Sequence to fold (150 residues):
Amino acid sequence: MKKKITAYLAGLMVMSSATAFAMVPSSEIALSGVAPGMSVDEAVAVYGQATYRGDDAYFQNGVKADLDDFNRNLIEELKINRPGSGVTTPAGIGISSPESAIVEAYGQPDKMEYDDGKNEYTYYASDSRMKLKIEAMNGAVVKIKCDLYD
Fold:
């Protein structure tokens, strides 16, 4: 009986130590130099002038920024899903990048989901302030989202 319990506990320890999270540096959670938590003014300096609709700012390169409800100059979330935009993460992942490049750049995701034909890779920043979500379909990246982590 003791051998079975010991083997069971050893197995649990191995399984728990094998559970690793990517925990990417927060500097890796950005789109072409703009990150959640930055000001709209800083984004405009990089992307050019924005068009505003409701709580969102839209840039000509296809990036959509969701703005804070109380501070309209604070970016809470950035999204891109336009192919050919040239917008990438610091690791070089952009729309139409091969899906295999995601894990090559960031490691195994902290969370992986399959939803409506898309693989969703989620990575949390090591300082727990932000997260990066990359969606891929048919072997290619179709959407990238960077946001402040609640």
Q: What stands out?
A: Residues 1-20 have pLDDT under 50 and may be disordered. The CA atoms of residues 62 and 120 lie 20 Å apart. Residues 21-148 form one domain.
